[in-house]
Specification:
396 residues; mainly beta; 6-stranded mixed sheet; 6-stranded antiparallel sheet
Length: 396
């Protein structure tokens, strides 16, 4: 046995492998008690994660390598590109990915964070709406939930694997995934989708995740979310010009909250807006951190005649860090951590206390017909940080 040990030590020169060799030898000595002959066969030594290693996790999903996989919630995607809308080439798409995909590799990996409230954790049915060319695999929180044209459930698809069949884009297909309580968890969830083309002449990907509730269908993830217009609080958003003061003095400083306000020069991006959290869609850290105390955002939406006349209760659900004021068609509807009702908060004001954006807060606003109007409406929100160098600022 001593000669066998010396031979192993001679062959395995790495410091870590020398330790392993001593352990192997010790095991041989223990296991060969009472025997004059012991056999040893070394198949492989692995001292670091392998990019070729396939392993199956507790959810039955194959992982490549020994690190955190791309479909898992805690995977760091900070180096990934960010965009909204449909992806593809061969037809008009919001994001033309021809230069990145056309060629030997036709695979696009997508990740989207979304928040799940307690009301969405019940027995509602979760559906995935896909418009794709030509195959995909979808995961929620690292668990496979649906696939098409990429082999049987659980099969691993490498990045250079073309879809098994051609499937033309152009029609939305709905895949029922199951009950919300079995798929979601409270707080931050992640939808991850890999889309594979069939040839290098066409590719398309559009994704929407939704859940049914007693009051209707709620869209949790959509590739075509309406962008918000936003203004960084380096100065007052209305530009210091009292455009409406002569007509309506109460709007002094709040001109930015009316539907007609010209916001074409503002930035645009999907919510959540801000910085410092993994689920942020429009990252504004370079604009806000250390530079500005506030962020202003507007989103326009169209209301039909019947909805505008409804007597149902209207609610506002908002996640904010650290203080906010919200206006609907220039009327204040909710505020928190930013002074008394009716007080016009200056752009440079800091929120008096810090808070986290999750869980969101729901505000009962009253009868819908008292707040909405037929046609274009606007929701305008200003959110303020508690410090210029706070670790995060969030509006969603």
């Amino acid at each position: 046995m001593l000669r066998l040990e010396r031979e192993i030590m001679r062959l395995l020169r790495s410091r870590y492998l020398r330790r392993l060799a001593r352990w192997v030898t010790a095991c041989l000595l223990i296991g060969s008690a009472g025997s004059s002959v012991a056999g040893l066969r070394i198949n492989e030594f692995m001292a670091a994660p392998s990019a070729r290693l396939l392993r199956q996790d507790s959810n039955g999903v194959w992982r490549l390598g020994a690190g955190i996989s791309w479909m898992e919630t805690n995977f760091s995607d900070s180096a990934w590109m960010t965009a909204t809308g449909t992806f593809g080439f061969g037809s008009p798409y919001q994001n033309n990915v021809f230069s990145q995909l056309a060629g030997p590799t036709l695979t696009l990996y997508l990740r989207s964070y979304f928040m799940v409230e307690p009301a969405h954790m019940g027995s509602g049915t979760v559906s995935l709406v896909m418009n794709y060319d030509s195959g995909f695999i979808a995961y929620i929180n690292g668990r496979e939930v649906s696939r098409a044209n990429l082999g049987p459930t659980g099969a691993f698809a490498y990045c250079d694997q073309p879809a098994y069949n051609w499937h033309p884009a152009g029609t939305n297909e709905t895949f029922v995934l199951g009950i919300a309580s079995s798929l979601f968890r409270g707080g931050t969830n992640v939808l991850a989708v890999q889309v594979h083309g069939y040839t290098n002449t066409s590719f398309a990907a559009s994704v929407q995740l939704q859940v049914s509730t007693p009051t209707g269908t709620v869209v949790l993830v959509s590739a075509t979310n309406t962008p918000w217009r936003y203004h960084i609080g380096h100065y007052e958003p209305s530009g210091g010009i009292p455009m409406l003061a002569a007509v309506q003095p109460s709007l002094w400083g709040l001109e930015w909250t009316v539907p007609e306000f010209p916001d074409d020069a503002w930035g645009a991006g999907p919510a959540p807006l801000g910085y410092g959290e993994t689920y942020i869609s429009t990252d504004l850290r370079s604009d806000l951190y250390g530079n500005a105390a506030s962020l202003y955002a507007r989103v326009k939406f169209v209301v039909d005649e019947a909805t505008a006349r409804a007597t149902n209760a209207l609610q506002l659900e908002v996640g904010f860090d650290d203080g906010f004021v919200a206006y609907l068609n220039s009327s204040e509807i909710a505020r928190s951590n930013l002074g008394a009702v009716g007080y016009v908060v200056p752009y440079s004001m800091l929120a008096p206390a810090a808070r986290e954006a999750y869980p969101p807060t729901v505000y009962d606003l009253g009868i819908a017909s008292n707040l909405l109007k037929p046609g274009t409406n606007v929701l305008a929100v200003q959110v303020h940080n508690s410090a210029l160098t706070s670790s995060d600022l969030v509006l969603w």
